[in-house]
Amino acid sequence: MKGICHFKDEKSYEGNFSIQIPLIKSTFKGREDVFAIRWEKGNKSGYMPAYFYDPYMYRTHKMKGGTFQNYKDKTYLQLSDKEIAKHLNGEQQIGVYPLLIDNTSWFLVADFDKENWMEECNKFIVTCSERNIPTYLERSRSGNGGHVWIFFKQPYPAIRSRKIFISILEQSGAFFLCLIKAPVLTGCSLTRIFFQVKVWEI
User: Fold this and answer.
1) pLDDT one-digit tens code per residue, 79-98
2) Whole-number Å distance between alpha carbons of 148 and 133
3) Its pTM surpasses 0.85
4) Closest alpha carbon to 186 in 176, 196, 171, 195
5) DSSP secondary structure letter of residue 45
6) What are residue 59's phi and psi, to 5 degrees?
């Protein structure tokens, strides 16, 4: 999938969101050296890292049979105030990579889908409340699911937060844990735990 090219003469919107941008940056902390951007092609869509590259050089590379994947003259775009402002302005939809270089994260998000997603979200939230763990429920982009957010006071090891998360799910009775080499979630509306990319659905 083709990347995203940014030019230096783009307009600046940071001043229009002087309150929102610091709030977003202080709440949804993740990697700042890279961010994800939404792409659409036909009936397909997804998220990929945003890159800076020379479109003319890439066109030459493509004419020689190259692809964006093997195009080397590209670099990650940093998560700047400008990019967040463009997200808030509706020009693009971006997401943060929660998992830091040292395998820790500032927050954890669980994605619940399927018909009984609301019931299982509620079970999970109640169990967290019993453990004095604050949670925040967000409706998913499709409207047919929910995301449960848990924030940490400091970066927390992902391997430990995942174990705690699964323990809470077991206690809530939201799913059956099937051990086959690695934990597999079955009979449950939980589809994933976000460590790769989380989108700000604002």
Assistant:
1) 999 999 999 999 999 989 98
2) 12
3) no
4) 176
5) E
6) -65, -40
104-196, which class in CATH? alpha beta
Q: What is the pLDDT of residues 155-170, one digit of tens each?
A: 999 999 888 888 888 8
Per domain, the residue ranges of the chain are 14-96, 104-196
Are the C-beta atoms of residues 123 and 174 closer than 8 Å to each other? yes
Rounded to an integer, what distance in angstroms lies between the CA atom of residue 128 and that of residue 126? 5
* SS3 call for 124: helix
Q: 111: which 2 tokens?
A: 């994605």
Q: Residue 35 in contact with residue 95, Cβ under 8 Å? A: yes
Cβ atoms of 62 and 53 closer than 8 Å: no
Plot region of 143 (φ>0 → left; ψ -120 to 50 → alpha; else → beta): left
3-state class of 161 per DSSP? helix
**Tally of residues, the chain:** 202
Residue closest to 4 by CA, chosen among 32, 26, 36, 30: 36
* C-alpha to C-alpha distance for 175 and 192, rounded to whole angstroms: 13
Provide CB contacts within 8 A for 156, sequence distance 6+: 104, 105, 106
